[in-house]
């Protein structure tokens, strides 16, 4: 065995030891548990063996419901689909700083940090081809992300620009996650699944004021600040209002930036040597993200059969992260000023959703051709018909996304206009969902079909899904599901017919492919959920996914000798299968634990460029635990997120990203009513390795914060 292998194996062994240590620390707190029974002895902190965690009385938490899986409110542990709900309490206890970081608490999600506070989120694993045309193709493109049913995906070239979300974790009530194709109910781009961020709404007439702030304090840490505030009240138990605002500012973890021309990291103060407008393009490399937003949430509940919610928001952000991979730098800066309006109504059995977004975005500041005004209209309506034990839900949806770069004309031959005027994408769809229950609700069947029609290339998409869940006995649920979904086309794929000239003077004609279609995903899953004891729930899910029509860039030379570039559907087929086991243990109201992992195998068929199958991690997962003591004033929240090494390969190069164990710890103390002070340690073992190609090393970060509630 060579030295490199010894070092690598030693590092993995150390990581497993760290993981085992975290398990031991969490388990060890079982014997330090206090109960109300202890107060009778006169010493509230006296421990006895018969008061260990397994003997504590615990009635259990309230049922956690999810709507996005089957289209109806149901127990997340009884749905026939692979689904998870992250509650506000577990997110807050874990100390996550952002919404995408909080998704590391859920099974089946692979989350990469690019620079401080900016992430990419995938369901199961990356969807990019082993060889892609640019860095933007390496992003997550098949997960639909919503805020209260309002899509927030970027339809210019797919993915989610997380810093442009107007809401912060302070606004989140829960996050619903469905890890299988969900196109039937939600429409385009839910090919791998859907993440729906459900916001908080007041429940009483009492005026409530909340504010929190945390800031990094270690001398050499990247400057990081997250702050938010909100006020809410209700009127006569029918009309509720909540106003909130947030401000976030982070700096990069390092003062160097990868330069493609020299294939190494270069100090920020030397970037002007490689590009004269580096101060506009990269702010000399220091910025990670800086954004603020204001929100207004309204809720009207005149009676139990009618509920109307509305939200207005304004967001202003800039961020520097991995995006395109231009001639000079791996990182580029993007800005966004966006306004949101969202409306949801439930009127007896009729459900209506409509949202409108408008503003302007510059996805690559300093590089002409990437700035445009945007607008996005989204609407959906469906009706629920109940006939005995059957449920039928017919519905329809319409979506329109517009891009206008007329006010930002580019005169740069290297970076010409991409949109070429005022252009739009639109699609409409019709769906029919249904479900039934038999054998006194022991057998549940759900399914549906949907047809979408796209304005681009006259394409259409047929989606369908079916699932069954069976409770042979009370504590065991068996489930199986099959689904097919896909994505629509994106603006850059069908509008960009520019002629660009490289810095070497070579002209490249971008050719529009009239036959280009979105990617298609087929997914089979089977699983079981077992209530092992009153306090322990075990689930095991097997999945097999097949993705076709993946998109890649094709460079060629036409008959006249001109260089061309075209987006095509690759013949490569991505096949992935694996299992996701998880254990949730609610030992008591004071101690809760969840452990989960995804073990998977990925291969790319019909691709001669593939020389190994390490383009997605073979495992990833985590552990979360919460422990309360000192009369429930002290709360310790611990979490571990880990993943295996994998290779990211682009036309810019190939990088092996090492396996990583990321432990986090938040200790908070309730000093007055529900107000707390806390210390938040992220990646406290200080594993300073990269999580994304050409990005920053991610070291430890320590923050101190306060949360005030009145």
Automatic annotation (TrEMBL):
The keyword Glycosyltransferase does not apply. Residues 76-194 form the TonB-dependent receptor plug domain. Residues 1-32 form the signal peptide. GO terms for biological process: siderophore transmembrane transport. Its main location: membrane. GO terms for molecular function: siderophore uptake transmembrane transporter activity. Coiled coil: none annotated. It is found in: Cell outer membrane. InterPro entries: Beta-barrel_TonB_sf (IPR036942), Plug_dom (IPR012910), Plug_dom_sf (IPR037066), TonB-dep_rcpt-like (IPR039426). It is a multi-pass membrane protein. One of its GO terms (cellular component) is cell outer membrane. Keywords: Cell outer membrane, Membrane, Signal, Transmembrane, Transmembrane beta strand, Transport. It holds the Pfam family Plug. Belongs to the TonB-dependent receptor family. This is Iron complex outermembrane recepter protein.
